[in-house]
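Posting this for the archive.
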Amino acid sequence: MENTLLIALSRQTTLRREMTSVANNIANMNTHAYKRESMMFDDFLMRSKGGEAIMGDKLKFVRDVSQYRDLSEGNLEETGNSLDVAIHGDGYFVVETPQGNRYTRNGHFQLNNEGIVVTSDGHPVLTAEGDQVSIQANDSRIEISRTGQIYTDGGEIGKLSIVNFENPQFLNKVSSTMYSSDTPGTQIEQPHVIQGKLELSNVQPIIEMTRMIDVHRSYEKAKDLVGKEDERIKKALTLISDR
């Protein structure tokens, strides 16, 4: 009798986590360079009564094993801002934080009061040599080449550090668009960056809303199953007590 309740509970637990993932995707659909996430599940089959028949039912326990990140590139948005930079293809910008180097594809950069190029959170952007990008107060021109070289009125001042990883799925999520890694990335010698553009989120709102409706319906079905099973157990106990 307990198997049905355990199966329904496992299903509800995984669906709740899936709903959290969908809601987070929808909340970040306008976040630059955000990558859509979804849950990955394992099914554990157990032979039930009548399972020997060709169309026999199977009991299925569900367990969420990990979260999958959709690494496909988002569309590019034209901004015209000289400090907005998008990566076309593979790669991550390297930024310096108090907790160590972090990695992001969100190239919405700006200058702080000291003339250092930083992220919107104030973290310095690093060059391939590991230095911060410093712009002089009298520099009126900032140009970034296709391969990441940075030029001002005084000439070339460095090259953006753009790295890649053997398996980006293993990156640890720190914030919506920031990641950490246990091992440093490998420098991409010939990256493809585009100045004056930003990568948009790869979330497709219609698909996420459809997923949300499907998850909600599945959760309600599991809830109904729990209710029916509870009624069945109560009736069985009543019949036993009446004997």
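The longest strand covers residues 58-69. Helices lie at 2-27, 205-242.
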